Amino acid sequence: MLSSPTINNYPVTSNLPSEKIAILCLGGLGGSGKVATELAQQLTLTGNSIFLFTSPQAQWVNQNQSVNYIPVSAPKTPTPSIPQWVEPLAQEIIHHIETHHIGILNVHYAVGLVEAALLAKQQLATKHKTLKVCLTLHGSDITKFGREVEYKYQLKKSIINCDRVTAVSHWLASQAVKILDLKTRPTVIHNAIDLNLFQPLPRWNTNQKHTYNLCHVSNLRDVKRPLDAITVLARVRGAGIPARLLMIGDGPNLTRARQHAISLGVAEHVVFLGSTTPLELVRWLSFCDLQLVTSESESFCLAALEAMACSVPVVGTFCGGLEEVIGLLDKQLPELLLSAPGDTATMAAKVVQLFNNPQTYQKLRNTLPEKIKQHFSRQTQLQNYTNLFATLVGHGA
Predict the structure, then answer these.
(1) Which of 27, 54, 238, 286 has a CA between 20 and 30 Å from the CA of residue 63?
(2) Ordered structural domains, the chain, with CATH
(3) H-helix or E-strand containing 142?
């Protein structure tokens, strides 16, 4: 065990136990898989032995990473928990836990994955082998599946049976307590981003004919309300602001979004870029003047954090975790930047107000990256996780 490894040139006290640790996550475009994969990679860089269990051909895994990647039959997207896939996944977990002598399993996203992890723990116990299960809640596992009557009790039971439970925001922790009537509030460990990657890049020179570039970054699911971003663009243009919209991401509403742009007469001003790598995303953000977050629910909103770290202000919605993230940067910002989900008129008005007040806008651009470093540093996230894992050694749940 190393004494003082560093991340991004900052020390991280390596309190990780001697037991090996595995992280289990979904392998698709969603934020939970991204957070989990980056966490595994960064913990590995501290000199610890970390294994990543996730879907084959996982979105966020690449060959340049040093993490021990083990493909398992985890779904790529949130999938209702049924024995047909949960039980085989549990058997794979057992095999790899025994093969690599892993003592702690950190599960990112509850639905299905946590049932498989707990089933593996139970079966390992019959062999007198101990596996500690630490669950990290990410959002729709609580706000969507937790509200489903037929699944609510099972989810609550699984959470109670975990050795430790965390959430990515105070808002999500409160929702978990409220929706599932939990007696113990999850520990909050905020997400973080790679500030060596997500940072301001040189911007193109502009002139009086400058066209403002808006962007929307999501997996284009209903909860993200991607069509609202296009409506906002149409309203902004209607207010006399020359603007275009970069739609970054892919998902079930892609076709509807294209049709919506045509119906509003702004198709030539909307560019659909599809899915991007993190490096490509940073490059696209360097072209952007502002990001639109139109979600009806966000447990944290990693996309907003990435944009602001690149000096791109965010106009968004009061959707849960987003106002927590923005409010931590500056308690005045939610009122300036956020409106109710679906209220595209107010959102467009806030965009126009920012662009018509260059002093306020430029102040935002100049101050956001440093505030991100202060409140959402990678070293703080890693320190919190290492401390959490250390508490699992030699202690009960």
Answers:
(1) 286
(2) 6-192+377-391 (3.40.50.2000), 212-375 (3.40.50.2000)
(3) helix 140-143
CA distance to 93, 114, 119, 127, 397, per residue, from 122 (Å): 12, 12, 5, 9, 14
The closest alpha carbon to 142, from 295, 282, 294, 32, belongs to: 32
pLDDT greater than 50 at residue 164? yes
Q: Which of 336, 332, 354, 351 is nearest to 229 (CA)?
A: 351
Question: What type of residue sits at position 215?
Answer: C
Instruction: Name the residue among 224, 274, 221, 209 with its Cα closest to residue 246.
Output: 274
Q: 101 vs 15, 26, 83, CA distance in Å?
A: 19, 22, 26
Which band of pLDDT confidence, cut at 50, 70 and 90, is reported for residue 17? low
Q: What is the pLDDT of residues 332-354, one digit of tens each?
A: 999 999 999 999 999 999 999 99
pLDDT of 232-290, one tens digit each?
999 999 999 999 999 999 999 999 999 999 999 999 999 999 999 889 999 999 999 99
Six-digit token string for 359: 């002093």
User: What is the spatial distance between Cα 334 and Cα 249, in angstroms, rounded to a whole number?
Assistant: 25
User: Residue 54: which H helix or E strand, with range?
Assistant: strand 50-54
C-alpha distances out from residue 211 to 240, 242, 296, 338, Å: 11, 5, 28, 23
Helices in 25-110 by DSSP H: which ranges?
31-45, 83-100
Angle, vertex CA 22, rays to CA 142 and CA 64, nearest 5:
105
Specify whether the CB–CB gap between 312 and 282 falls below 8 A: no
CA distance 108 to 161: 15
